[in-house]
Design goal:
Elements lengths: L1 E6 L2 E6 L10 H16 L5 E6 L4 E3 L4 H4 L6 H9 L2 H8 L4 E5 L2 E3 L1 H8 L2 E5 L3 E3 L13 H9 L1 H10 L3 E2 H7 L4 E3 L2 H12 L4 H19 L2 H12 L3 H11 L2
Parallel strand pairs: 2-3, 3-5, 4-6, 5-7, 6-8, 7-10
Antiparallel strand pairs: 1-2, 8-9
Length: 247
């Protein structure tokens, strides 16, 4: 479900649920959070690469089997919001986290992507905020982080149209840092660049960047969570999920 591998001081975390396109389940979320927290405590780790075992998909979003079983009330909304611990863990990790995309990052997968410090996309990769199709809004801080990366105008377009962004355009708008033939290999190359610096320097720099974002955000993340609570169980959400159940 989640594979860990060390390459020197780089920790490679590989999402490995190909049968459900790496959908984030409660168990996978807990494993990912635990792995990131362990790496933050390990002074031999200087960078984390988050990758996928699936050639066409980075993360397809939340696990629909679990989501469709949730009630259309506050209990269901809070269960989804709890999975946001994954994006918080990525942002709070002591060391830089690099997303290595060689396939699609959809919905919650797009939210995981923008929670990483750096993003490298392969030629076939795409990022797509598909929440509108589900009658929902981002639950895990994706809207706030997307606007920080690409600005208000671009964020509005990507959220409201749910269109896919491919590697070249993603780099041009600031959604990704680099594009390459293969995202995983290029992400490892970038991680190796980071390891030329000391861990203490990287930790201090990431902490400063994180604090700068916090000062600008105010209560944006909580406002986003509240918007999700209102959207969960709405007519649009019910219609979208009921249609999925009928497939």
């Amino acid at each position: 479900m989640l594979r860990r591998r060390r390459e020197g001081s780089i920790l490679v975390l590989t999402l490995d649920r190909p049968e459900v396109r790496n959908a984030i389940s409660r168990d996978l979320a807990e494993m990912l959070v635990s792995a990131i927290e362990d790496a933050s405590r390990d002074r031999t780790v200087t960078a984390i690469v988050l990758a996928s075992s699936h050639a066409q998909v980075f993360v397809a979003g939340g696990d629909l089997r679990e989501l469709l079983a949730l009630p259309y009330d506050a209990r269901g909304a809070e269960a989804v919001l709890e999975l946001g611990a994954t994006t918080s863990a990525l942002e709070e990790a002591a060391v830089p986290v690099i997303a290595a995309l060689d396939g699609a990052a959809l919905g919650g997968g797009a939210e995981l992507t923008v929670a990483c410090d750096l993003v490298v996309m392969g030629r076939q990769a795409r990022v797509q905020f598909v929440h509108a199709r589900m009658g929902l809004v981002p639950a895990w801080g994706g809207l706030t982080r997307l606007e920080e990366k690409v600005g208000a105008a671009r964020a509005s377009e990507l959220i409201l149209t749910a269109r896919a962004v491919h590697a070249t355009d993603a780099v041009a708008m600031g959604l990704a840092n680099r594009s390459a033939e293969h995202g995983r290999e290029a992400a490892l190359d970038l991680a190796r660049e980071l390891t030329t610096h000391t861990r203490d320097a990287l930790v201090a720099l990431k902490a400063s960047l994180r604090e700068a974002r916090r000062r600008k955000r105010s209560d944006a993340l909580e406002a986003e969570r509240e918007a999700f609570r209102r959207a969960w169980g709405s007519d649009a959400h019910r219609a979208a999920f009921d249609a999925l159940r009928e497939r």
